[in-house]
Design brief:
By secondary structure, the protein is an alpha/beta fold. Helices cover 36% and strands 27% of the residues. β10, α6 and β11 form a beta-alpha-beta unit.
Length: 245
């Protein structure tokens, strides 16, 4: 059994994998890994992989040092089962590359568009020959709502949850619909654009934000909350296979 430790901007996800499939998950707020010891008491792990987009404090590092199994720290130098064509691989977010690998583990040999709708929304493309070719980054829902509040003093900070009319009937709904529906149209636009270039394109959607798409677009989308952990576990397995005895 393998352990995936995925530390994002605001929370930590611990996922246990058995035979390449997620079997248990724990999500904690923050980056201190306070639930790590308990999770390791529930499961017996042979190896672990860490991906983090933040710097960890001494307490979190101490918990990692106390792991009862070898730990692989995922960096730009870690070999992955894809060809990485990003021009500056050292600046590529580990979560983006892991998501690309995760989608490839599920539908390798196809052209894939991986969309992660989290704090930022990322669009990453993997070609059918197993190459990660790059992607784009844009602000997520909360960032856009806060930006409106920050840059326009007369406009309020609006909650993401609430009515989403086609056209806003007051300032609150105008902002919410403008942001949320705007992102939906943006995502649909990316899918349509790359579907022309890659007619067999498959789309994987992950992240915390939920969007409702038109039927022709929806049929191409596979939602999987474990895309990033799947990719990290595949990278760990790839490392263990490649590692000299």
């Amino acid at each position: 059994m393998n352990l995936v430790i995925d530390i994002g901007n605001s929370r930590t996800k611990l996922v246990a994998f058995h035979d390449g499939q997620p079997v248990d998950e724990r999500i904690d707020e923050g980056h201190r890994l306070e639930g790590l010891e308990t999770f390791c008491k529930v499961h017996t792990f042979a190896a672990a992989i860490l991906s983090t987009v933040v710097d960890l404090d001494a307490a979190a590092e101490a918990r990692l040092q106390a792991l009862p199994c070898p730990l692989l720290r995922f960096t730009a130098l870690t070999p992955v089962p894809l060809q990485n064509r990003y021009r500056t691989p050292e600046t590529l977010g580990s979560d983006r590359l892991a998501a690309a690998v995760g989608a490839w583990t599920l539908r390798g040999g196809r052209n894939l568009l991986v969309i992660d709708a989290g704090s930022c929304i990322t669009f990453d493309l993997v070609t059918a020959d197993g190459a990660y070719v790059g992607g784009n980054i844009t602000p997520g829902v909360q960032a856009r709502l806060r930006a409106i509040d920050d840059y326009f003093p007369r406009l309020p900070l609006v909650e993401q949850k609430g009515p989403l009319p086609e056209l806003g009937y007051d300032t609150q709904t105008a902002i919410r619909a403008g942001v949320v529906e705007g992102i939906r149209h943006e995502i649909e636009g990316y899918i349509r654009h790359f579907s022309v270039k890659y007619p067999d394109l498959l789309v994987f959607l992950t992240g915390g934000d939920d969007f409702h798409f038109e039927s022709p677009i929806k049929s191409r989308i596979f939602a999987d909350p474990f895309i990033v952990p799947r990719g990290l576990e595949a990278i760990l397995t790839h490392h263990l296979v490649q590692k000299p005895n």
